[in-house]
Amino acid sequence: MSQPGTTPGHAATESPGSTPVPEAAVVARSGRLHHTEIWVRDVEASRATIGWLLEQVGYVPGEPWANGTSYQGAHDYIVLESGPDVLPVAHRRCAPGVNHLAFAAGSRKRVDGIASAAMERGFRLLFADAHPFAGGPRHYAAYLADPDGFEFELVADESNGLPATGRDSVGC
Fold first, then answer.
1. Which residues pair with 35 in a beta bridge?
2. Do strands 68-72 and 60-61 pair parallel, antiparallel, or not at all (unpaired)?
3. Do 168 and 134 contact (CB within 8 A), yes or no?
4. H/E element holding 120?
5. Are 164 and 136 in contact (CB under 8 A)?
6. Bridge pairing between strands 77-81 and 35-39
7. Alpha-carbon span 23 to 18, nearest angstrom
8. Are 139 and 165 spatial neighbours (Cβ–Cβ below 8 Å)?
9. pLDDT tens digit sequence for 70-112
């Protein structure tokens, strides 16, 4: 969790007279995602969908503010934010930019359970014709889109370390 004077997920800044962080500690933290910020049209609706999904894969809700909220993971955090700078246009996952976020979600049974519950919350299953192997024959996953079109991939433990092939890099 955060230290006094910091935002969840942000490191404390050094102040005069403080002890510098050893370079080895900085290197040990490098190479990992620090945070992801997802701009949404309706933060309350996104808390009920994306926020719920994040909690299912192990993120813990942080303190909300007027235009957003955060979810703390093991090594990173994710922000859902809306406000005056968010354009009133639909998300297009196949446009240039980030296509989807993929999460380790546990066993195949857990992936199936989360996917089923997600569909009851307004998500839709992508690539249903090839589910649960839309990423290839050795990649068990559910590809979901929330009501605004943001894509999330739930990957079963049995797929860890196995690169997805097929739709993961080809289709929309």
1. 77
2. antiparallel
3. yes
4. helix 108-120
5. yes
6. parallel
7. 15
8. yes
9. 999 999 999 999 999 999 888 898 999 899 999 999 999 999 9
